[in-house]
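Read as amino acids, tokens; as here:

___
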Amino acid sequence: MEAAAPPHGGPRAAGGAAPARGLGRHEYAVLALTFASYASFHASRKPPSIVKGVLSADWPPFTGARGTHRLGELDVAFLSAYALAMFAAGHLADRADLRRLLGAAMLASAAACAALGAAYFLDVHALAFFAAAQVASGVVQSAGWPCVVAVVGNWFGHASKRGTIMGVWNSHTSVGNIVGSVLAAAVLEFGWGWSFLMPAFVIAALGVLVLVFLVAHPSEAGLEVQGMEVEMNGDGGEEVELLGEDKKEAQGNDDDELELEMGSQLPRAIGFLEAWRLPGVAPFAFCLFFSKLVAYTFLYWLPFYIRNNAVAGQFLSHKASGILSIVFDMGGVLGGISAGLLSDTIGARAVTSVLFLLLSIPALIVYRTYGSISMHHNIGLMFLSGYFVNGPYSLITTAVATDLGTQDAIKGNSRALATVSAIIDGTGSVGAALGPLLTGYISTRGWNSVFFMLIVSISLAIMFLIRLAKDEIVTKLSTRSQE
């Protein structure tokens, strides 16, 4: 039997699917390459937060009373373009060659990041140039997320421990932030332009590796994923689930008959509005709107906050503030893994997300109140804040998006995955654009006001998941009583 055509335009394996025993090696390669790819996207987003202090001090038009406002407007230029383009990017990723689209997006992102760094060497002070470069960067980076989620979904969409796998894999976000912060801060003393050029080089190099080595779907490597369901109707309308090479034996059909049945099951790309109507998509999307607002406020403003708030009576340098901010992302790595593991253990994504969101409120209050006492307090409380803030953000953008994009309502249509993930992350990115923009204005009134905004946002995120969490609890209790 020939392998079914891959849903993203990859070549069909000649002569049939290879045995599933070779799958492990390819899985590791796909996880590693997509992990590095998306980490590099986030690394290229960190320089603006690292150089904010320098720009506000001595680089017009970001100096003066309106300097922080303009820095916030730069953030929203990138994030609004990213959010709006994300919806189209998901639609495109469901129809394009994922390897080529992802590689091209990475190379274009490198060019946009390098253009921002060039402003330093060319002595550019026009706000319009910075805004245009940020918009261009947002548009091309929007293709990254739906591509990597679709690729990982192709390989792990039916994994039993999807939450744990995705939790570990999604630490690329925090790892990328850490790498970007360290690279940008390390070369800041040589001129802020280098803080953009170093991450640009990294993402460009990895983009070339993606174009050469990425295998976007198992069938492109002549493999068939064991456990990938193909649903057919048996006699009497009974649904029969067939797995791997046992399909031929179970049906007793020859290759041509089975291929005919398989052909009727090849998925079509799901429509945008149709994807919005899938169960659970809208609540999780709007929850992510507020969760990502909080996460991206820290992403873009935490080094600036550290620089302008004394720790143990002393103000840190721009470089030290940038490096210290990676503690938040270190907490995020562990938080994302923990959220995925917990959600797999209890089988409840919404309950896990609500739990982390609830605990993030006291974590932020304590960090704001006691983080300035000493460096030890600051590091420990910042780590705790990152742990709880990034946990649900990580879970929703990966395991939840994959769950919703492969749910029974669409009969495992893998071509819905990029569209669903783009809807969820695109909606979240609108919130991500709003948070840094509001921070640029609200911070002039004091940082207590900023933290109040973050707590209100978390509370709204919880509200959108309350009904789903309740349904999960009721289902679990009902199942347990029946057993």
